[in-house]
């Protein structure tokens, strides 16, 4: 008689690693009964090469002090993971290096660890298969679940975000019934309706504008008007995060930057006195170890610099700065008016409405009542008010 095959049921491991593999950063941490922000670690998702050819991998960039003319290589392009050779080097440094904060072997062996991994909506099947192959063959996680990133937002305490009492630690975790997730990240912006934890695929809409395009646009503007910063991606990205905001009245703010003297003062609103648009942005000095920062605009100092080329601060250190006006809000305006740079796409509000039109009419009011905005671009001042 042929032998009977025996099946040994294996217990599911207790450790679960959650990885949000974003284009700009990796957000990762181990699941716990009472999660908080300290459980999440943020790691740059890139390889970087200095002028002297030294290569920095992932979290190593946290100790880097000179970002001048640094070249970046990112494994995620247009929101999709396309370069596993580079991603594997970053994951090895993040999860397997004994000096890493997320050293998996410290918590438990990868063979005894569950993995939850996020991906962008509408990822191609070939890229998904490649990802699955790498997870099991290269890393050997015990169990593995791949999810669309925005769908996991439904498992947060959504009602608490809107002012209700927080649910208890012992409450069962069930997804919110209706959530409209707007995710504006590094590569793109997506609008994803989520119903009971499941994305409604036919209503997902994508806007091909993200943090990278905004940074590149700011690089071009600054290189034309001020200094040549085409090879200074890190510097310009930091400047964007520090100075850019979303205008609630683009035409009015544009006029404020053009006008000067008594004409401008006569047309100002009372709140404009405390919110000057024109500022001076002092460039970082990597040799001296100083970071870039903005300060109120000083017209007399700007005039002196035009004559002398550079000025020393009170400490005697020569500093370079740029006087910035409409650059501060013209960059973020691309999210709402892509036609400003010739992109034939709808702006973010129109993209949201297109997504809602792809839903049954009965779900639209509930989705509009529960909008969750995530991603780095939403941290710009004025973004939520404009939206």
Relevant terms:
5-stranded mixed sheet, alpha+beta, 13 helices
Compact overview of the structure:
It contains 13 helices and 20 strands. It is α+β, with helices and mostly antiparallel strands. It has a 5-stranded mixed beta sheet, with helices on one face.
Task: Provide structural commentary.
The structure is a single chain. With 387 residues, the protein is an alpha+beta fold. Helix content is 29%, strand content 21%. The chain has 13 helices and 20 strands. The chain has helices spanning 84-96, 104-107, 125-139, 158-161, 211-225, 233-243, 250-258, 261-267, 299-308, 327-330, 348-357, 364-369, 383-386; strands at 15-21, 25-30, 41-44, 47-49, 55-57, 71-73, 76-77, 80-81, 113-119, 143-148, 178-184, 189-195, 198-199, 205-207, 279-282, 293-296, 311-312, 318-319, 321-324, 371-374. The strands form 6 sheets. It has a 5-stranded mixed beta sheet, covered by helices on one side. Strands 11, 12, 13, 14 and 20 form a 5-stranded mixed beta sheet that branches. β7 (76-77) and β8 form a beta hairpin. α5 (211-225) packs across α6 (233-243). The longest helix has 15 residues, at 125-139. The model has no long low-confidence stretch (mean pLDDT 83).
Secondary structure topology:
Layout: E1 15-21, E2 25-30, E3 41-44, E4 47-49, E5 55-57, E6 71-73, E7 76-77, E8 80-81, H1 84-96, H2 104-107, E9 113-119, H3 125-139, E10 143-148, H4 158-161, E11 178-184, E12 189-195, E13 198-199, E14 205-207, H5 211-225, H6 233-243, H7 250-258, H8 261-267, E15 279-282, E16 293-296, H9 299-308, E17 311-312, E18 318-319, E19 321-324, H10 327-330, H11 348-357, H12 364-369, E20 371-374, H13 383-386
Parallel strand pairs: 1-9, 9-10, 11-20
Antiparallel strand pairs: 1-2, 2-3, 4-5, 4-6, 7-8, 11-12, 12-13, 12-14, 15-16, 15-19, 17-18
Helix pairs in contact: 5-6
């Amino acid at each position: 008689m042929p032998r009977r095959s025996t099946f040994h049921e294996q217990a599911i491991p207790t450790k679960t690693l959650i990885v949000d593999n974003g284009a700009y950063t990796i957000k990762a941490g181990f699941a716990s009964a009472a999660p908080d922000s300290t459980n999440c670690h943020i790691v740059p998702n890139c390889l970087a090469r200095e002028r002297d050819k030294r290569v920095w991998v992932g979290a190593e960039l946290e100790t880097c002090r000179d970002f001048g003319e640094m070249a970046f290589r990112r494994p995620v392009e247009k929101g999709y993971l396309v370069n596993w050779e580079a991603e594997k080097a970053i994951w090895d440094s993040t999860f397997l290096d004994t000096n890493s904060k997320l050293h998996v072997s410290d918590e438990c062996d990868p063979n005894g660890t569950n993995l939850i991994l996020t991906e962008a909506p509408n990822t191609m099947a070939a890229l998904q298969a490649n990802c699955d192959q790498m997870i099991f063959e290269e890393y050997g996680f015990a169990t593995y679940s791949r999810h669309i990133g925005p769908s996991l937002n439904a498992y947060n305490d959504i009602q608490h975000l809107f002012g209700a009492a927080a649910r208890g630690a012992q409450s069962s975790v069930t997804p919110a019934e209706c959530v409209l997730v707007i995710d504006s990240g590094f590569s793109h912006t997506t609008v994803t309706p989520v119903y009971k934890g499941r994305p409604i695929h036919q209503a997902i809409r994508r806007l091909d504008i993200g943090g990278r395009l905004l940074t590149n646009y700011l690089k071009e503007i600054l290189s034309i008007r001020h200094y040549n910063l085409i090879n200074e991606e890190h510097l310009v990205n930091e400047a964007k995060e520090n100075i850019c905001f979303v205008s609630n009245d683009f035409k009015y703010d544009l006029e404020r930057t053009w006008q000067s003297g008594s004409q401008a003062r006569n047309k100002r609103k009372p709140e404009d006195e405390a919110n000057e648009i024109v500022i001076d942005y002092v460039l970082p000095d990597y040799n001296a170890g100083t970071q870039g920062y903005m300060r109120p605009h000083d017209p007399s100092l700007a005039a002196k610099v035009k004559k002398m080329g550079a000025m020393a601060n009170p400490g005697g250190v020569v500093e370079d700065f740029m006087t910035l006006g409409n650059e501060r809000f013209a960059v973020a305006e691309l999210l709402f008016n892509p036609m400003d740079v010739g992109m034939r796409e709808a702006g973010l509000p129109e993209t949201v409405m297109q997504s809602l039109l792809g839903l049954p009419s009965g779900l639209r009011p509930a989705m509009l009542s529960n909008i969750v905005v995530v991603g780095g671009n939403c941290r710009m001042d004025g973004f939520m008010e404009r939206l």
